[in-house]
Amino acid sequence: MESSILKKIIKGIPKAELHLHIEGSFEPELMFEIANRNAIALDYDSIESLKKAYKFNNLQEFLDIYYIGAQVLLHEQDFYDLTWAYLQKVHSENVVHVEIFFDPQTHTDRGVPFEVVINGIHKALENAEEKLNMSYKLIMSYLRHLSEEAAFETLEASLPFKHWIDGVGLDSSELGNPPSKFINVFKASADHGYKLVAHAGEEGPSDYIWEALDLLKVVRLDHGNRCLEDDALVQRLLDENIPLTLCPLSNLELKVIQKMEDHPVAKMLEKGILATIHSDDPAYFGGYMNENYYQTAKALDLDKNQLQQMAMNAFEASWLSAEAKEKHISQVKNYFNSLSI
Ligand code: HPA
Ligand SMILES: [Zn+2]
């Protein structure tokens, strides 16, 4: 398909974003602005020199910079501005529903109270619902390089805000920090009514995906790229209709794949896996939702049906009510039916 036509089609698709770390949407311009107003010196003297540092050989090299960037966030207004900037951006890309992660420990470990973080994020989400007609869910992620005990403290701190939080996730350095490290805190989180997801099989082996399913009992997997190495695992994902939230540009930037042509999403769709694509940390990986769709479609030569399937899968995989899912899925169908090509 011709590039400009493909871009136009993608832009018009009603989309859901299910894998987005709000701290990973922190654009350098806003980072400098907030650093200045909080009188915090960044290690980089300009936006350009900061952007030059965005070259990663693996997940850890990215995380090291991502945690540094988040250090300038101190006040409720900072978290509000960060979240509102993201929501406005994706609204302009026709994203109509978001389920976003935040990493409380990245902030509470620096002395920023849990309520400061969540109040700012929540206010921006409410504003988007009211002013942009967007729907949302919020997912609190435990940092897996820290202990399970620390995750329990975070769970405790979240309880007064339970009504604003839909689920818990597991992110940060995957290798050496298997899902099995967090069995108890996931069980306790479920007992408090949180839905469960986890990053698994991004850099870690397919064993970690089994653990996320069997030990943590997640209802959705973040990334899960490496499931294709294991036929029995693919069968399990199919039998239970477990969604995978894939992030193609992230995978490319973190060298999970060497080139976009190697991305597994087309194979997954072909097998009938509920695969969806998202942006992960768009300020660091060179693109938001539309760019992820575009780069993937171009490299894998995806056709209209595959694009439609990915867009419908995202709503199917979301935590919206059955009625809302149905509404969005028919909008996607109507949109594709209305295209003249
Ligand atoms: O892609 C990711 N993987 C693991 N942890 C993360 N935290 C932010 N982004 C990521
Ligand atoms: Zn992620």
UniProtKB/TrEMBL annotation:
One record GO biological process: hypoxanthine salvage
Annotated Pfam families: A_deaminase (PF00962)
Classification via Gene3D superfamilies: Metal-dependent hydrolases
UniProt KW Glycoprotein keyword: no
Cofactor(s) for this UniProt protein: Zn(2+)
Reaction catalyzed: adenine + H2O + H(+) = hypoxanthine + NH4(+)
InterPro entries the UniProt entry points to: A_deaminase_dom, ADE, Ado/ade_deaminase, Metal_Hydrolase
Cofactor note: Binds 1 zinc ion per subunit.
EC number: 3.5.4.2
Binding locations of Zn(2+): H19, H21, H199, D280
GO cellular component terms given for this protein: cytosol
Gene Ontology terms for molecular function: adenine deaminase activity; zinc ion binding
Domain of life: Bacteria
Keywords: Hydrolase, Metal-binding, Nucleotide metabolism, Zinc
Keyword check for Phosphoprotein: no
Active site (record annotation): E202
Domain Adenosine deaminase intervals: 14-334
Chain positions of site Important for catalytic activity: H223
Assigned protein family: Belongs to the metallo-dependent hydrolases superfamily. Adenosine and AMP deaminases family. Adenine deaminase type 2 subfamily.
PANTHER family: ADENINE DEAMINASE
Known role: Catalyzes the hydrolytic deamination of adenine to hypoxanthine. Plays an important role in the purine salvage pathway and in nitrogen catabolism.
Identification of the protein by name: Adenine deaminase
Species of provenance: Ulvibacter litoralis
